[in-house]
Amino acid sequence: MKAEIFATSLLLSGFLNAGNWPSWRGEGSNGAVSGEQPPIDLAGKLLWKTELPGRGCSTPIIWNDKLFVTSPIDEKDGLLALDANGKELWRKSFGAGTPGRGQRVGSSTNSSPITDGKIVVAYFKSGTVACVDLDGKPLWQINLQEKYGEDKLWWDQGTSPVFAGGNVVVAVMQTGGDSYLVSLDPKTGKEVWKTPRKYETGEESGDAYTTPHVIKRDGKEQIVCWGADHLTGHDAETGKLLWQCGGFNPKRAGMQRVIASAVVADGLAVVPFNRGDSLAAIRLDGSGDVTESHWVWRNDKLGADATSPILHDGKFYVLKDGGPERGRLTCLDAKSGEKLWESALPKAPQVFYSSPLLLGDQLYCVREDGMIFSGKITKDGLSDIKSYALEEGVIASPISVGGRLIFRGDTSLFCFGEK
């Protein structure tokens, strides 16, 4: 009996004191985290499965003993909290949702929520930005489209909010409508600043589904934003444009919308562009227009269109998500762009939308049909590759805290780990 109580208490403690996952790609926002590793072989390791009230594509987040995830609730924008056993603690809805466009990658809840351990902020396709405390108490709610103009994106919203300069910042980047960064007071939702971010582009090429990065330079926070054929840096306190880098699409070709986010570390941003066919590394130490001076390297034979890459410990990992070479994983030296190795995951007709996760030396990738691939990163490539069929479609990216691995499928949340 005592042993059963002890085992139950361990399970209930769950994520508590095991680390946090406060935003879409975890702390650092580069898809790589440290901490206790989950099983590399997931067979027989499912701890729980919880059905969600609607189909969404957002990645969950975790703070201490709570998991938060956005989801449609009776056709409304919704946010749920679950405990470490997958039991629902509360749910809140914030008004009518705007349905996805009906594609397999679309939903009204594509953007991931964020938390600082005090509040949770969620952003929806409807334009609603809603803030609650960790117990679900509503604090404020606004609608960016009602305030600043309608959504003109061709596809479903993808960017997630970030915390920057002590506030909540949302990037809206679109070809047809107003494009801007807006900073909101986390206590009231009132505008702190709003700065335009509009560039002349070809058709659809101003549409961006990327999430900004927040970095520190000379002791001050900057917001690094990728979209509309430009990488830009903005003062987090004022929104002022500090630098910009073009050259990604000099002829202003159309249909160059961007989905995969850049990754940022060690004074570099590595940027996927050209619809999954190109990569570039840009230095982040400039001011003004740095188009002619801050390109470090460029590769027009590698890239990712939808899956954001990983940047960790001076190495850059990119998963080719579609096309004839889908499932190809390439490791580059981030500073030089030199290819270090290349490995291939088992191929199928399906593609990848979920961004990969690196935890220590273990890599996890999920195909759109729910096939999970895991393996060990070595100096020569990916080894010990395992596969596990989730039997549910997956667009959201995996997350991991305290030796547990969480996947958000079309209709359910799955948690894997050692029992």
Keywords:
disordered N terminus, 5-stranded mixed beta sheet, mainly beta, 419 residues, Methylamine Dehydrogenase, Chain H, 2 helices, 34 strands
Textual characterization of the structure:
With 419 residues, the protein is mostly beta strands. It has one domain (2-416): 7 Propeller (Methylamine Dehydrogenase, Chain H). It contains two helices and 34 strands. A five-stranded mixed β-sheet has the order 1-28-29-30-31, with no helix packed on it. A five-stranded mixed β-sheet has the order 15-16-17-18-22, with no helix packed on it. The chain starts with a helix and ends with a strand. Mean pLDDT is 94; it is low at 1-12.
Oligomer category? single chain
**What sort of overall outline do the alpha carbons produce when their principal axes are compared?**
globular
**What is the CATH topology assignment?**
Methylamine Dehydrogenase, Chain H
Distance between the termini: 17 Å
List the helices and strands and how they pair.
Blueprint: H1 2-13, E1 32-33, E2 46-51, E3 61-63, E4 66-73, E5 76-82, E6 88-96, E7 114-115, E8 119-123, E9 128-133, E10 138-143, H2 144-148, E11 162-164, E12 167-172, E13 180-184, E14 191-196, E15 213-217, E16 220-227, E17 230-235, E18 241-245, E19 263-265, E20 268-273, E21 278-283, E22 288-289, E23 295-299, E24 310-312, E25 315-319, E26 328-333, E27 339-344, E28 357-359, E29 362-366, E30 371-378, E31 381-389, E32 399-401, E33 404-408, E34 412-416
Parallel strand pairs: 1-28, 18-22
Antiparallel strand pairs: 2-34, 3-4, 4-5, 5-6, 7-8, 8-9, 9-10, 11-12, 12-13, 13-14, 15-16, 16-17, 17-18, 19-20, 20-21, 21-23, 24-25, 25-26, 26-27, 28-29, 29-30, 30-31, 32-33, 33-34
